[in-house]
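Example record used in the benchmark description.
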Amino acid sequence: MRLSPSVQIQAIHSRLAKKLAQPRSLQLTLTLRIAAIITAGLSTVTLWTCWKTQDILTASHKQTLQETAKRIEEDVVLYREMFPLEESIQKALKNRAANNLWIGVKRRDEKLVVKEPLDLQKPQLDALLFQRLVNRLAISSMPQTYQVQGYDFIACSSPLMVRQMPVGTLYLIHNLTEDQTKFDQLTHSLIGANLTALILLIVLIAYEARRLLRPLRQVSQMTQAISVEDLGEQSIMVPRAPQEVQELVNTFNMLLHRLSEAWQQQRAAAEQQRQFVSNVSHELRTPLTIVRGYLDSLRRRGQNLTDSQQEALSIASSETDHTIRILKDLLDLARADDGYMTYQPELFVLNDIVADVTKLVEQVNHHTVTLKASELVPVYADPHRLKQVLINLVENSIKYASLDSPVTIRLEQQQLYALIHVCDRGPGIALKHQSRIFERFYRVDESRNRSGGTGLGLALVKTFVEGMGGTVAVQSAPNEGSTFTVSLPTTPKSVNVSSLKNSQKRENLE
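Model output (structure tokens):
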């Protein structure tokens, strides 16, 4: 089924507005993804910078220890020519003393000669901690890092040689705690700066994304303001938009132009069809009415006619009435399509009009119709249109009901609505046909219809009921009969919104 241009425009606008308004909008998606990429980049650079800085700091201290160990050995050799070995070691250690540096020499007799750091006013290692580090050091010329009791150290040990003769083991321990503290502070400052820069970048990205997506919002607002009548006159203009958005706008303008042409063609075709139906109905109704009048006159005055002639006149009169009724139905549907169908709702008792319809249908169709109502049910509707609805529903049920089973009409009230149930015990309606039986000219199966039909009765029922602010539905199953339910308001305040739309449409057309 082809959708009208107005429905297509509303569908396009609702989809576009939903995409822009939903929690995961394009603006939010762009902001989050770009922020994630920047976060990953900044984190990687920060981690690499911290790791590289610490590696350079450690390597610098290791190289200093290696050079200090070499200089101490050279000083011991030099002083040994002038002083005893013990004094030579003391002088060599004193020459190389520095801040945060512990130097010790363990003689072969297990005697440990220690030179403490120069900055004695700062917290230093105690003898026990130094002895513990000395015990953990292996004989190696490559410095290693250690962490003991919350302090960070770089330490190394190597044999102390004098003239190719080992005189003991040299220990160098550098306290890195102060440098590590400064490095940690620098790292924290760097992380804080990165977080601040990241927040500022996210805010800037969100602002830029909103600015770049502003043309799309303008397109959404413009499409919302376009109505079916303005299709041929409106075009979307978004100046200074990006190229991709401008291409979208141009495509949408082309779509509006095509929808306008299709709408005009559809409207012209509908108008021609309506005019044709109206003209044909009017042209045929008048002569058929005249023919029916002559037929009725012949039947009243034809006492000399034979039985076969009387039967022929009766059949002709009946078919003429049937044709006139079809034309009347076509005219009513045409008026409803154009919004010229008028309704004059009023408040009355539903039981009375249903009882009148029951008697009328029984007299015409010679079929039993049973009314069941436990109470008086009020209804707010047009009595004339409601009577047409009831007659069409009851006659439709009689067509399909068996000759010996009555058609039942049940009345009830549920809150602010009056319900009319028209039930028969006919062959029922398959599920695949139930959604289409209210369409015009749609007929379920010719074999089920003993008396024929045009397929307009239920279409008129739906049109009239919805015009009065109600609804109509069917419940059926094969071989179990059918039940048509009409729901109508009981007060003016409970009128369905469909009637308001119908009235508004009539006002616009008038």
